[in-house]
Amino acid sequence: MMNNILLISGSPRANSNSKRVIAYLKQQLEASGADCHVFDLREDLLPLYLNEGSQYEDVNVSKLVQLVEQADGYMVCTPEYHGAMSGALKNALDFLNSKNFNGKPCGIAATAGGGKGGINALNNLRTVMRSLYVNVVPMQVIADPHIFNDEGQIIDERVKTNLSLLSDSLLDSVKRLKS
Ligand SMILES: Cc1cc2nc3c(=O)[nH]c(=O)nc-3n(C[C@H](O)[C@H](O)[C@H](O)COP(=O)(O)O)c2cc1C
Fold first, then answer.
1. Ligand 1 centroid from CA 13, angstroms
2. Which atom of ligand 1 is nearest to the CA of 18?
3. What are the Cα distances from residue 99, in Å, to 65, 78, 165, 179?
4. 41 in helix, strand or coil?
5. How many angstroms is it from 16 CA to the middle of ligand 1?
6. CB distance 3 to ligand 1 below 6 Å
7. How confident is the model at residue 178 (pLDDT cuts 50, 70, 90)?
8. HSE-up (13 A, CA, CB side) for residue 79
């Protein structure tokens, strides 16, 4: 049976590098036979989390919960904002709980400003995912601005290889958990 992977970019920005990383990872995962869905924090705009049950009637909130529950694994790329994941991504994760994720595996990547950032966002995301009892794989990738050309394509071969290894690592975890 096909593995179903949900991909989330933590940046709602129009020409987002995180979205480009997610698009590259989607290609890799699909090339390995996975069925991919993207939850887009810009198009599927979520309300601010108020910790009120009625918010789950929101069409985008219920779509997020449904996609998380249906997926066999996750791929998340967040921008580093002031040494942490983006507020938009944390807001999305606040709508979810460990039952929604059900211990399934996740790969993580970060985009950064190019001044040795990214690792703080990854450590922050890993800690938050641990609190949601998500199994984050050890492999992780940081994408600095210089790895993209003017058309937004990833041109750094080392980063491409690492994204491919991240994709393989996630699918390996998904398969092992399922068997
Ligand atoms: C509000 C804000 C805070 C940022 N803080 C950091 C930071 O702490 N470390 C870092 O490396 N880059 C930082 N950056 C740069 C972003 O991580 C970088 O521009 C990234 O590409 C943004 O993601 P996006 O292209 O997917 O929108 C910050 C950018 C913004 C807008």
1. 11
2. 26
3. 10, 22, 28, 20
4. coil
5. 10
6. no
7. confident
8. 19
Taking the C-alpha atoms of residue 12 and residue 80, their distance in angstroms, rounded to an integer, is 13
In short, whether 18's Cβ falls inside 6 Å of ligand 1 is yes
Residue 89 near residue 129 (C-beta atoms within 8 A)? no
> What is the per-residue pLDDT across 78-90, written as a single tens digit (0 to 9) for each?
999 999 999 999 9
**Phi, psi of 133, rounded to the nearest 5 degrees:** 55, 35
Q: Of all atoms in ligand 1, which is nearest to the CA of residue 20? A: 26
Per-residue pLDDT of 149-164, as tens digits, reads 999 999 999 999 999 9
| Amino acid identity, position 71 | A
Which atom of ligand 1 sits closest to the CA of residue 10?
26
Burial of 14 (0-12, 13-18, 19+ CB in 10 A): exposed
Give the pLDDT band (50/70/90) at residue 174: very high
Report whether residue 78 contacts ligand 1, using a CB cutoff of 6 Å.
Answer: no
